[in-house]
Amino acid sequence: MTAPSPLNPEGFKASDQNESSITLQWNKVNNNVSFVLQFNNSDTNISSPDGAEAVTHTVSRLTAGTKYTFTLFSVFEDVRSSGVSLTAVTAPLNPEGFKASDQNESSITLQWNEVNNNVSFVLQFNNSDTNISSPDGAEAVTHTVSRLTAGTKYTFSLFSVFEDVRSSGVSLTAVTGPYYVLVMNQQFKSLTKLSETDIKDTMAELFRKYGLPPELSVNVLSVKPSVSGGKGTSSLAAELEQNRG
Description:
- By secondary structure, the chain is mainly beta.
- The N and C termini lie far apart (about 85 Å).
- Helix content is about 5%, strand content about 55%.
- It folds into three domains: about 15-90, Immunoglobulins (Immunoglobulin-like, Sandwich); about 100-175, Immunoglobulins (Immunoglobulin-like, Sandwich); about 180-245, Dodecin subunit-like.
- The longest helix has 14 residues, at about 195-210.
- Keywords: Repeat.
- This is Tenascin-R.
């Protein structure tokens, strides 16, 4: 007489995974029932552990960021149950080339290499997560974090994500640029009265000459005319501030 088929295992799930392995777990039936795990056209016999309510088995030597299908059977007296199946994925590889590619007083631009079109990213910073899609056709991914404080050190953690499973993550520390204020006191002498616009244009040209960006804030202070050779000349003092990253 043929033994009846045992019940299928219950609670079959993936309990853990990394880039190269998936750990499977299910409920024990009883001490007389063993199991067969079917995967990649091969069968693995698994005994029922004594005294344990749950059975675990780790499948190794897998490929990162890949979807796998597993089928599990209960076995009693060489008779299998109908079987239950699940699909699970390995964690993707961590992003490579993670670095700060640019920064100023209030932002840091981060850059890393794309993994593939099926892998997205999560940037973890300041106790919050930002989801970032993988751009089509781009070898590098960039993301700018704004509204930061000048001259401050920040830590960023980056994860690859495949089918809602994260990689182990990589981290870096980067700093925002300091905030500089350049103050100049400059006097001009002219036979004609100089306007504030004239002074700003003159100083912008001076800054360009020395390779500095002409982002100037000008305060003009009037000075009493001086007398030279019987002719009156007007003199203006210009105070300039420049913010540089």
